Amino acid sequence: MHQNIILLVWLLLVAKSHTYTVKQIYQFSSCRFTDIENVAARANGQLLLNLITEPSTYYIDPTKTHATAQHLYTFPNGTSLTGIAEYAPDVFAVVVGNYNVAKKAGVPGSFAIWSLDMRSPAAPIVNKIAAIPGAHALNGMTAVKDSPGLLLIADSALGLVWSLNATSGSYQKAIQDPILGPSGSFPLGINGLHVHKNTLYFTNSAQGLFGKFVITDAGNAIGNATKITTPPTGNIYDDFALDWQGNAWITNHPNLVTEVTAGGEQIRSEEHTSELQSPPL
């Protein structure tokens, strides 16, 4: 959770030198606490921002000199948004539910997946895909590109991955494994997840690891998980993004981004205490 908190930044990545420039795009008003949970990019370069502190999606054009976050849509029947994933061209699935941010806990039975269709020039077309009453704390979500309409969703409290057919609305538990679960007193296990080719990559905040499963076209695991790496000392893995080469860019609490190459090498970025400031998980 909490991929980008309060302050949205754009990381300009230079893979060969492993250097980057941090640029502030926009900062929400300090009059109220705003927590950006997840971000998705449209083909036109706009960013869609899901808030966990309200059930709203905003959008922003990061190429503009004075970019401003514009309200797009507020979803009903929930207090928070978490995962967002593009499952068809310019059509996004959004996780809606109730979260107690202070306790880092979802409300069991409150979660549903909605469709946000951005293809209309006037306004987005919004429809409910399915409620998942058995979910406890839905978090990250990813589309399986080789299986049109298939979504995989992390349940941080139950420590499992749900699969959902965005066309039919049918869902099931796809992957259950101890490596996905929370541990001790920390309630968030699997957090972010993304698919590259036939591999599902994931972070586990409680267990402090970045790992992967080889999966079938239906999103089920083939064999056991592989543990790739762990966060730098004093950090907690959160959400992440995969680039076109299969490298993972992982946000770490409190203020660090690390790159994990496709070969499994972790490269610690420079800390930015002001630009990447975030509250604890």
Blueprint of the fold:
Layout: E1 4-5, E2 7-14, E3 19-27, E4 35-41, E5 47-51, E6 56-60, E7 70-74, E8 80-88, E9 91-97, E10 99-100, E11 105-106, E12 112-117, E13 125-131, E14 138-143, E15 150-155, E16 160-165, E17 171-176, E18 190-196, E19 199-204, E20 209-215, E21 221-229, E22 236-242, E23 248-253, E24 256-260, E25 266-268
Antiparallel strand pairs: 1-4, 2-3, 4-5, 5-6, 6-7, 8-9, 9-12, 10-11, 12-13, 14-15, 15-16, 16-17, 18-19, 19-20, 20-21, 22-23, 23-24, 24-25
Question: What does the main sheet amount to?
Answer: 5 strands, antiparallel
Look at the structure and give the mean pLDDT: 89
What percent of residues adopt helix (DSSP H or I)? Answer: under 10%
- Tally of strands: 25
Strand order of the largest sheet: 1-4-5-6-7
Radius of gyration: 17 Å
What's the helix-strand series?
Answer: EEEEEEEEEEEEEEEEEEEEEEEEE
| Uncertain residue ranges | 2-17
Determine the number of helices (DSSP H or I, runs of at least 4 residues): 0
**What is the overall shape?**
globular
Portion of residues in beta strands equals: over 45%
Distance between the termini: 7 Å
Structural class: mainly beta
